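User: Structure please.
Assistant: Input sequence and predicted structure:
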Amino acid sequence: MKTTKLILLGVAAMALSACVSSTGSGSGNSEAGFIEINPADNTSDRHLGVPNHLSNMRDAGIWVDPQGCDHWMIDEGVEGYMSARLDPYGNPVCSGIAPPTVAVGRYRRGT
């Protein structure tokens, strides 16, 4: 049992060490310990080998929060995305399309 715990601890340490940059703080970046895989464009998902821009994901749904305001929801199979639905002035949209804490739409098509 002790050997198993030591092996698991070693594997966890090696897995976590892959997340830390060895450049230290000499790069001038305040988050020098983190690696940004795609620093220029965070609107696409490149984890499956096929770039899929959020604007191409047509199966969005709307989730209504407990206060009754809408949130856009997209589920592309591996990851999901959610953002508040806003009017042109930046105010939340509370349309009443569904009861609070209920989701509507075709968002599950990606799963």
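Residues 1-36 form one domain.
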